[in-house]
Amino acid sequence: MKMKRAIQQQDKETRKKNILQSALDVFFNKGFKAAKMDEIASNANISKGTLYLYFSSKEQLFVELIQQIASPKVNQVEAMVNNDSTLEDKLNLFKQHAKNMLVDQQLPKLMKIIISDSGAFPELVTTYREMIVDRALKTMSQIIKRAQSNKECRQGDPIELAQLLVAPVIFSAIWRIVFEPSGATKINIDSLLALHINMLKQVLIVKDRVDEDAI
Amino acid sequence: MKMKRAIQQQDKETRKKNILQSALDVFFNKGFKAAKMDEIASNANISKGTLYLYFSSKEQLFVELIQQIASPKVNQVEAMVNNDSTLEDKLNLFKQHAKNMLVDQQLPKLMKIIISDSGAFPELVTTYREMIVDRALKTMSQIIKRAQSNKECRQGDPIELAQLLVAPVIFSAIWRIVFEPSGATKINIDSLLALHINMLKQVLIVKDRVDEDAI
Amino acid sequence: MKMKRAIQQQDKETRKKNILQSALDVFFNKGFKAAKMDEIASNANISKGTLYLYFSSKEQLFVELIQQIASPKVNQVEAMVNNDSTLEDKLNLFKQHAKNMLVDQQLPKLMKIIISDSGAFPELVTTYREMIVDRALKTMSQIIKRAQSNKECRQGDPIELAQLLVAPVIFSAIWRIVFEPSGATKINIDSLLALHINMLKQVLIVKDRVDEDAI
Amino acid sequence: MKMKRAIQQQDKETRKKNILQSALDVFFNKGFKAAKMDEIASNANISKGTLYLYFSSKEQLFVELIQQIASPKVNQVEAMVNNDSTLEDKLNLFKQHAKNMLVDQQLPKLMKIIISDSGAFPELVTTYREMIVDRALKTMSQIIKRAQSNKECRQGDPIELAQLLVAPVIFSAIWRIVFEPSGATKINIDSLLALHINMLKQVLIVKDRVDEDAI
DNA sequence: GATGAATGAGTATTCATTCAT
DNA sequence: GATGAATGAATACTCATTCAT
To answer: Could you tell me which Gene3D superfamilies the record lists for this protein (chains A, B, C, D) (predicted)?
Structure first.
């Protein structure tokens, strides 16, 4: 059965979105090499030929998929720092963003794809890291650095502190993506992140009174 | 040139080890689907045909590889709990084990393979998780639970505390495996784990009474 | 952008001519199999769909192209014989016709197509041969035969003499079509044909005086 | 049914020859684009996979085929000039070589392939032309030039004379390759070449003195 | 009538697996 | 036991043809 034609530019964009969504599923489940263009096409309810009207090759589809997903996330990450509340507020905000990201799953799925196909697409890993990962960690470490100069935060390498802040989010992402589908106990994201952030606040945030700090 | 025949049982085992090591490299770098039996064979200095004298199929080689690597790790993990020192000692020990694991890279590589091919081998993920991950987390959480009943450790869900304990190790593993080859700043494992464990000690360990500690 | 409708019969014919011209270029450059309908269409400034309003298939377009080009040539060839001048005049006329044909290139291009796709279209080769080649050779051989009975021309198989007359034209056509585009020294058609015809005249034409002929 | 294995280097060469022979047939009949690797393989009584053990791609097979056929011909052509007999002897020798070439058909088939796929492989045309065609024509024109300086041959551009010498051979090749399979009257090569060479001798060869000739 | 989006049969190429040597 | 030549199923990609707009 023939698909309705996408004559309008708008329809074409929609069609492209459908294909990218289907591609995300298939690349995510199978990895680049094992993903079949046929499967991506039929999951998007189009024929193989139509796929090639929108993307000139498997590789181009793959690369564009990564970019489409990754791009909007950059700003979200950056948004967190343009906000001059207290460190505590920022940690709370981070918790919220992290939760959304984990629930939405797009970024975790992307992460899984990147991990899987890092060997075959080293440039992609570089791009993704520079665009998202380095940026996010840099943003976080700047927040911490600023808080440290305010005496709001305890001392310690800001980059390593940012890594420790982020680690449980990565852990949760992998858990959900890799282990839960195979029957693992589900992680309670809310609870885990709350515990994580609470503990961090306890160690990081300097209480105003000098004497309390004197451990 | 023909390879020497592996007449002795011992030689056979050595040959198998070589193949598995080669397979680990190739599966790790390419993923299951993109890995070529030819490459695994030639990296092990044997012919393609010989490969099939030791493993009946690519899939069987893959499965056996996972098991061969995973099995010995189970005991290492379990060893940590058979030791009734203080929580602080145990956290130090964990730090040491974690560092070794990250330096040795076998387990991180296995982790990458599992993540990559989880879609194609769900049973394998289950096995790996039950054998290693669940066991490790359960062990950690038991340590914490015990410490909590000793009043040595603050309250909080022991499983989630174990997850937070483990998270930076996972993070470091992924960083080293995925990002460092593509040019990321290298993680200082020692320093990061030290910071992590120190912070954890600060929040978790209950200082009983000042005088007891001072002995 | 939509093309103007070819409402008038005249427009239709023009459109068809355009398509055939475009098809000639493409079939000539690529051969039947490698020629793309898309390219033929866009070179004719119409859409792929429109092509099918004029020709029901690639094959039909091909066949019709051959016929369209070949047909008018038949009469040109035949025209040469309906002319009762001397053999020398006829050879001069042949030289002129040959030169025009080589300069115009349509027939040489057709020849290249026929050679290339003879395997796939044997009936076409038959048609083309019967319509053009056999006819031309027969015409030539009749001229020669007639001249022989006039004692204007030396003896010898008229068909073979016709073939030898034509051979340098075929040679020149191939040279121009195949070799010149890849950098070969250009043939000087005028000069080559003049030499050819002069030499032929020397051997063929019987000078009036009996004693000179007595070799 | 599996083919016997080519273990010895010699067997491999034989296998390669078989494939090239099959490829010649198929490329000759269909042209490069329409030729199917499957057909080449099955005509050589091997599987498609085996083809790729000997040639890495269709294009490489094509190029190697051209070279394999063309290379040995170069020397044959050159051989004609290393011989300091009279021009008449050389023309007779040429007649003989030309006949052999036409009967053997390998070079005519190659010529047809070159003509057909000249558009897609311009470098190949260049190579073939430089290796064979230019060389042959240059050889012929040198023979003529030398004969002209000996006063053995009449004046005229040696290159054009060489082209006229060669033209009927090209004509015959095309006739046999393209027209005879579709039912054309067969050319009598012997007779046509004899007539051609005789006529050439008449115009070209300068009879020194009547009495010398009369011995 | 004209368009070009959609289709799917057709083809080059790869690679796990077999098995004659 | 070891080898690597042979196989053919599997898969990315192309392009003639159709037909909704």
So the answer is: Tetracycline Repressor, domain 2
Contact across the interface for B195 and A114, Cβ inside 8 Å: no
Tokens at D39, concatenated: 């057909």
Mean predicted confidence (pLDDT) in D110-130: 93
Bases of chain E within 7 A of a CB of the protein: 1-21
Superfamily (CATH H level) for C69-213:
Tetracycline Repressor, domain 2 (1.10.357.10)
pLDDT of residue C172: 97
- For residues A160 and A178, the answer to whether their CB atoms sit within 8 Å is no
Select from D176, D174, D179, D144 the least CA-distant residue to D159: D144
First vs last C-alpha separation in chain A: 74
Nearest-angstrom CA–CA distance, B201 and B193: 12
Mean pLDDT for the stretch of residues A33-39: 97
Looking at the domain that runs over B68-213, which CATH code has it been given?
A: 1.10.357.10
H-helix or E-strand containing D82?
Answer: none
Q: How confident is the model at residue C141 (pLDDT cuts 50, 70, 90)?
A: very high
Do A182 and B31 make contact, defined as CB atoms within 8 angstroms? Answer: no
Percent of chain B with pLDDT over 70: 89
Q: pLDDT band for position D211 (50/70/90)?
A: very low
Q: What is the CA D64 to C1' F6 distance in angstroms?
A: 22
- Give, in order, the Cα–Cα distances in Å from D180 to each of A105, A163, C118, D171, D173: 70, 80, 11, 12, 10
Q: Is the C-beta of residue A26 closer than 7 Å to nucleic acid chain F?
A: no
Beta bridge partners of D205: D153
Instruction: CATH number for D67-213: choose from 1.10.357.10, 3.30.2350.10, 3.40.50.620, 3.90.1150.10.
Output: 1.10.357.10
Smallest Cβ–Cβ distance between D202 and the set C119, C195, C203 belongs to: C203
The tokens of A71 are what? 């791009």
Q: State the Cα–Cα distance between residues D59 and A28, nearest whole angstrom.
A: 36
Write out the DSSP string of D136-184: HHHHHHHHHHHHHHTTSB--S-HHHHHHHHHHHHHHHHHIIIIIGGGTP
Domain A7-55 has CATH 1.10.10.60: yes
- For C45-95, the pLDDT digits (tens) are 999 999 999 999 999 999 999 988 888 877 777 776 666 688 898 899 899
Cβ B39 vs Cβ B26: under 8 Å: yes
Question: Does C125 lie at the interface with D, CB-CB under 8 angstroms?
Answer: yes
Cβ <8 Å between B195 and A171: no
What is B9-55's CATH topology? Arc Repressor Mutant, subunit A (1.10.10)
Q: Give mean pLDDT, residues B22-33.
A: 96
